TrEMBL record:
Organism: Candidatus Enterococcus courvalinii
This protein's name: Gfo/Idh/MocA family oxidoreductase
GFO/IDH/MocA-like oxidoreductase domain mapped to chain residues: 139-247
Taxonomic lineage from the root: Bacteria, Bacillati, Bacillota, Bacilli, Lactobacillales
Residue ranges of every copy of the Gfo/Idh/MocA-like oxidoreductase N-terminal domain listed in the record: 2-119
Superkingdom of this protein's organism: Bacteria
Length: 322
């Protein structure tokens, strides 16, 4: 895969650290703003990226690039992805796919009409530990409850309280606890249980954005609760409760470093089968395979999952009226 990276922020710099372990991915270009030119030059040099651009559309005109990885602020995902698809590029877009369900549907239709691969970068769906959790579900007995808590006091929260609004706390830019942290919990649950029958969201609102919230997903025979907070801390963990056993994950739902199998509150086994220590490695291995083989069947499966997640986001915002 001949890849252009769109963005130069924290997630991009984290991804670049593993590119040495992904020789099948050729780093053709990196794109940023004019004020990030110095950072682009530095990243180009350190990681052997062939070129850099401060003009996104100029980058898209390069014939050597067949795919782009979009890692810009949430509210730009839709427009950047649409431009790339119209330019004939395959697209890997960071979570959340878009800030609006209808935007997602438009991108899905466009990718299908252009016969281009479109995928959401969401680490937990590709981790081997997550696949193992799915395999272990049948050993738990009838599933009763799932609870996910991803609460992390934001380094930008104090500034937010003083009136400095960063994108992660700007509702107009896809910020807030639901879109930033709870999105991982939603993906975790949907990958196990599918689309729920009902969605309810109870946010704590500050300056018109949810700084924390409790999301309840209703299924026919069980319930799932997804908790996320950027205004407070708590132990980060997820629990899948079955009638006879339970699974406990003592790490964020985007990392899944390991998980335990419990029976009557006694640990029976700890499982960790991830093949690489970095959470983003396996997803990019899979992305490369799907793009290289133009595997539209795999793409449709992934898009169906992402569509359910975007539908939940839309339902949650409607339920909470924000």
């Amino acid at each position: 895969m001949k890849l252009a990276i769109i963005g130069s922020g924290k997630i991009v710099q984290d991804f670049l650290t593993i590119t040495k372990d992904l020789p099948q991915i050729e780093l053709e270009a990196i794109v940023g703003t004019t004020r990030s030119k110095e950072t682009l030059e530095e990243l180009k040099k350190i990681y052997g990226i062939k070129n850099y651009f401060t003009d996104y559309e100029q980058c898209l005109r390069e014939d050597t690039i067949d795919a782009v990885y979009i890692a810009v602020p949430n509210h730009l995902h839709f427009s950047f992805t649409k431009k790339a698809l119209l330019a004939g590029k395959h697209v890997i877009c960071e979570k959340p796919f878009t800030t609006d369900y209808q935007q997602f549907l438009e991108l899905k239709q466009l990718a299908e009409s252009k016969q281009k691969i479109l995928l959401e970068a969401i680490t937990n769906q590709y981790l081997e530990n997550y696949s193992e959790i799915k395999k272990q579900l049948s050993s738990l007995g009838a599933i009763k409850l799932i609870e996910c808590n991803y609460s992390q006091y934001s380094s930008r929260y104090d500034a937010f309280k003083n009136g400095e609004i960063a994108p992660v706390f700007d509702a107009q830019k896809g910020g807030g606890a639901l879109m930033d942290l709870n999105i991982y919990n939603i993906h975790f649950v949907v990958g196990l249980l599918g689309r729920p029958l009902g969605v309810h969201y109870f946010p704590h609102m500050e300056n018109q954005v949810d700084t924390s919230g409790i999301l309840v997903l209703q299924y026919k025979e069980y319930q799932a609760v997804c908790i996320a907070a950027k205004n407070s801390d708590a132990p980060v963990r997820s629990v899948v409760q079955g009638e006879t056993r339970s699974i406990v994950v003592d790490s964020p739902t985007n990392v899944l470093t390991s998980f335990g199998i419990y029976q009557k509150n006694q640990l029976l086994e700890t499982i960790s089968v991830n093949s690489h220590p970095h959470r983003m490695y396996q997803e990019f291995v899979t992305f490369d395979q799907i793009i290289q083989h133009k595997d539209f069947v795999a793409m449709q499966k992934r898009l169906t999952h992402s569509e359910s997640v975007m539908w939940i986001i839309d339902q949650a915002k409607t339920a909470a009226q924000f």
